[in-house]
Amino acid sequence: MANHKNNRLVVDSTGVNRTAGAQNTVEFWMFWRGDDGQMPFGFDNYDIYLVSGSLGINTNNSDVIGIASSGLANKWVHVTAVFYNGVPNASNLEIYINGVKQTIAQRLGSSRSMTVSNSAAFGGWSLSTSYQFNGYIRNARIWNRKLLASEVTTVMNTAGAVPTGNGLVGQWYTTSIENVAPQYDYAFASGYSRFDPVGLLTPNTTYPFDDNGDPYAGFTYQWDVPIRFTKLRFKSHPSYPIKGVSIYVDNVRVVTNLTITNTWYEASGNWYGSTVTLVRTGTGDQTIQQVEFYGDVLNKDYSLNVTKVGEIPAWYVYNMQMVQIDNTLDVIGDTGHGGNDIWHMVRTATVGGSVSYVRNYQLTGMQYTTTHPDCYDYNPWNDHLYIIHDEDPYTMYKYRINKPSMNWNLTYTAKYTFSSSLSNGGVLVTWAGTKFAFNKQTNEGYAYLLANGLGQGTTAKLYKIKLDTPNAIPEFVVDIPWYAPNNLVSFAVTDEYVFLPLSGGVRLGAYSKRYGNLANSYPMVGNKLNSYFSASSFNYGGATYITANGYQYGLIQLSVRNKRPLINDLKATPATLTREDFRVTATIGHTNDLPTSYKIFVNGVEKATVSSLPVPITVNHLLSNRDLVLGSNTITLEAIDTHSAKVTAVATVLKTNTDPFLNITASTLTCHKEHISLEVVVSDAEKDKAKFQILLNGVAKYPDSGGFTESLNTPYTYVYSLRNSDLLIGDNTVIVNAVDEYGATVSKNLTVSKLNKLPLVEAEVKGQTLFAHITDDDGDAVRYKVLINGSQVYPPSAGVWTQYIPTPIDVQFMIPKEVIVFGNTHKVEIVMEDDMGESKIWQETTLIDYAGLMFISEDGQYYSTNIGEVLKYLEVGTIVAGNLSGMFKVTLKNTIGYEVKNIILTTAQKDLNPTEEVVELSLTDKPFTATNRIEVDSLAHAESVPFYVRINASPKAIGGGEFDVRVVGDPA
Predict the structure, then answer these.
(1) Terminal alpha carbon distance of the chain
(2) Alpha-carbon distance 167 to 144, whole Å?
């Protein structure tokens, strides 16, 4: 982005989601100068509007949904706006300022239905040049979805490009000086176009510049190549000094709050950049009259971190590929030299050391051996050797090197075919197979390919493919001009550079991986290159070493100093703790003394952030114990410099915790109808808060919600009453769980028994009467019902019980004759239930017959029912007048169910003549003592007495007929 005073950036194809109801996000940094009626961004008729003291979303209807704009002017502010396709309101729109979601409202007019458009503009309206923004916009992005709050924070703090995909449809960013002092319109010094960087070494060059009173004026001097500045000199007009000046070399402020007068001001140092900028805060006319610069002209991406450290009088490397598998130097045989041999050169020193001896190993296990493998490289990040064979130029084979004694071999692991089609529709063209290399300086997870440059002096294209990924599509990195692709065996690559020979082979070039230009070069051994070029790299000792073959196989060795922050002595103390806070300390340096920022993470969650500081930096932060989890915690210190180089260091903190103490007691462990009082005691050695719950037989009783109580300060005691009705008869398990605020859990349980004795009964059936005596040892009341042959007879309604009756209970129940089959057995049941809800059944199978004083024949049959109904007759037969009939035995039996006394048997003549045909009774048959009345004192239940019956017919007897024997008695 650039300064947007009277300027705008039009986006012709936004790629947004225009579906009804969809949301899209626009986010950017802005420096607004406070002018009214301006749009930092706009779709067609749908924009972000600064007007009438408001900042918000406008639908070209004199409306704004948003916030007050006060406090947003004249400083960098990050703005995120979520647009809605439809009628916008405060619920479906969102605005974030500096990563904080704002409460928005309808501040102006009323909004109409609107949809985001395929065209848009930063710095104004997309439909015209109206409403142009006066200020700066940088790091702008458009997303075809709604960003989450966490994502807003992430992209806000990302200065450069963010990874494509995930809804990102466009981004525009810069690292120019405009982002350092955006409140000024930079005007370049007159004569700038004639500025010759070589003239840096010539002092007293005059470049007058007058701000003409412009309050936003600044002074910038710019070159097309980087400069290492050692001295800066400035002088103003005698009448127009410059006040409150800050001087920047590129984005680094080197001087602050300076006043420049007509006396030379001189600043000495060692700064690298392509721009020198003066920013001032004074007012009124101010003039730079003269400037002088001293330093060295450098190539783009020049770095003092790449230095030649030595030469290696190497052994034979002609037409071979160099690979560094460890700190030694290895050469793998190529065509004509045993394509599957490896020459292991052991050197006297890892830097510049000569080869002391060479071991030769025969490699076995390659997938192809008919011709030479085209290109090798060893990946130290996963300890595998990768090969692209000439027979299969688009497949990368992955091998593990096994080193048993003198017989090395390869174990084939996998192969990955990458696409020959490029993302831009082109085709990946290789020469003599595919050349590739790994970055040994940083584990990027990519392999770099050189391709599409087929002749001397052509431009090669550097691609990268995702490692160990099937069908990976080569991603373009940069164009690199170089000289002879057919002479290339291998090359080397680091974070910033690609190492290839310059044209003519006299020097080894370090080409910028970012720009593709030659950043620096180094003389080859013997100032000459043999017919084939091979290079390798390995990272050790805080640097990456590049080794390349020169004339007569001598090797040049470069050191690429790893430009990055350095973290020393990271400690988290105490390393083991319970509840106390802990302190993170460390020292942060930098290999290039670049300003560095750092963050502290606890288990991956950011807890402290410190922006760019000069090194060395002393890290000292007290962090909260509550940021820790129980057990091992990972404390990560992440340092990142102004070039985005990042390193991390890790420490651990062990947070320990003792379980809460829990005890439960019960007022009694046995009960019948009583409630039980529980006392719960909870304490904690660390005084942590703790919560608890009570469960009875697996069911939550307290709290009744089923969860836990709220966390309470320990120690505490809680008393809870278990209702007797909640207890089951028998054993009941009470469990109390307690959990402290860190999740440590303890459980205790006890068993309480609810005791109950079943009702007792003594019962029998006498005649038609059921006699029962019901008791309960617990003194419980009992209810009951009577069943005959499975059918309830008492109470008479089925399913109905008696009321609960205090025990003991005496039952005397006459069984209804309707349910009796006289003379047969019946199942008689008494079902009882005490008031504790427990039941018992008494049952008996018994013969039920007529109940009374019953007459029974000699063959055991009844003569009549208990109410006198005739069942059979006593057949006397024919009697000859003047004679006695036969004597008939009859048994009188008491079946009433209780004792009967005062029993009297009498005769009733009925049809018989009372004088001539007399019915006679006798208690004995021998002698038969004739009488018409027999008295028996008593008969117990089921007791019987025999008696005898005959007819005494006189000579005058002429009749016959029926007669009765009758019996009466009283209950005893």
Answers:
(1) 125
(2) 5
Residues 6+ apart with CB under 8 A from 772: 761, 762, 763, 809, 810, 811, 813, 830, 842
Check whether 184 has a pLDDT greater than 50: no
Considering the entire predicted model, what is its pTM? Answer: 0.39
Which residues make Cβ contacts (< 8 Å) with residue 376, sequence separation at least 6?
321, 323, 332, 385, 386, 387, 490
- Taking 70 as the threshold, does the pLDDT of residue 222 lie above it? no
Taking every pair of Cα atoms in the chain, the longest distance, rounded to a whole number of angstroms, is: 189
Q: Rounded to whole angstroms, how far apart are CA atoms 700 and 679?
A: 16
**Stretch 682-696: mean pLDDT:** 93
Nearest partner of 267 among 221, 291, 232, judged by Cα: 232
List all residues 6 or more positions away from 466 whose beta carbon is below 8 Å from its beta carbon.
Answer: 445, 446, 472
Is 550's pLDDT higher than 80? no
Number of neighbours of residue 568 by Cβ within 10 angstroms: 11
- Residue-level length of the chain: 972
CA distance 54 to 818: 99
Residue 670: closest CA among 753, 768, 596, 590:
753
Q: Give the DSSP H or E segment for 153.
A: helix 149-156
How far from 525 is each of 501, 505, 555, 876, CA to CA, in Å? 12, 10, 6, 158
Say if residue 774 is exposed, middle or buried (CB neighbours under 10 Å; 0-12, 13-18, 19+). buried
Tell me how far apart the alpha carbons of residues 38 and 56 are, in angstroms, rounded to a whole number. Answer: 11
* CA-to-CA dists, residue 51 to 649, 738, 902, angstroms: 48, 59, 125
Per-residue pLDDT at 760 exceeds 90: yes
Please calculate the CA angle 486-487-492 and round it to the nearest 5 degrees. 110
Distance CA 794, CA 814 (A): 10
Residues 393 and 379 sit within 8 Å (Cβ to Cβ): no
pLDDT at 507 over 90: no
CA distances from 481 to 224, 309, 536 (A): 19, 26, 20
The C-alpha atoms of residue 554 and residue 523 are separated, in whole angstroms, by: 12
DSSP strands (E only) in 250-326: 252-260, 265-280, 287-297, 306-312, 321-323
| Owner of token pair 């350095």 | 566
The answer to whether the CB of 373 falls within 8 A of the CB of 319 is no
Q: In angstroms, rounded to a whole number, what is the distance separating the alpha carbons of residues 723 and 717?
A: 19
Q: How far is CA 241 from CA 214, 279, 280, in A?
A: 15, 13, 11
Torsion of Cα atoms, 239 then 245 then 251 then 252, to 10°: 120
pLDDT tens-digit profile of 45-100? 999 999 999 999 999 999 999 999 999 987 778 999 999 999 999 999 999 999 99
Structure tokens at 102: 């704002």
Q: Long-range contacts made by residues 579-582, C-beta under 8 angstroms, separation at least 24?
A: 579/625, 579/686, 579/687, 579/688, 580/625, 581/622, 581/623, 581/624, 581/625, 582/622, 582/623, 582/625, 582/628, 582/653
Token pair, residue 890, equals 């009859």
State the Cα angle at 120 between 118 and 122, rounded to 5°.
Answer: 155
Poorest-pLDDT segment among 213-217, 374-378, 505-509: 213-217
Residue with tokens 């930096």: 617
